[in-house]
Amino acid sequence: MKIPVSGFIVHSEDADGQHSHQLYITSWDGRPVHVHEFAGVTSFDVGHSHRYAGTTAPAPTGVPHVHEYRTVTSFDDGHTHEICGTTGDEIPLPGGGHYHLFEGFTTVNGRTPHSHAYSGKTSDEEF
User: Fold this and answer.
1) pLDDT digit string, tens, across residues 39-78
2) Is there a domain that residue 3 lies in?
């Protein structure tokens, strides 16, 4: 199955001659895409917690969907953790728009190896 996708690529050159590309998808199967911001604080484990924030991957507007997300926590107690997963389905807001719930566990890290639980809800969609 082929799905039409449109967008653009941004090329950047670093001072040391390295370059990179970033893909921005603007429509998926003829529908505009959107993202959500998310943020929170992990559970308190092994004497500390971590803050996190990020933006979900894009998803099409106007159809049932979920978003992938990935970020790194704040540096606390000498280490960070990675957070990644997939949100739940969209939850409509009374005035229009929607948000998603998310939850999971961080990667294991630290002097005493451990992970943290996290959960929250995304912001309303952003185009």
Assistant:
1) 999 999 999 999 999 999 998 888 889 999 999 999 999 9
2) no
pLDDT tens digits, one per residue of 80-110:
999 999 999 999 999 889 999 999 999 999 9
Do residues 74 and 52 touch, judged by C-beta distance below 8 A? yes
Count of domains forming the chain: 1
Q: Which domain holds residue 42?
A: 30-121
* 34 in a structural domain: yes
Which pTM was predicted? 0.77
- Name the E strands within the chain: 5-13, 19-28, 31-34, 37-41, 51-55, 59-60, 68-72, 82-86, 91-92, 98-99, 101-105, 117-121
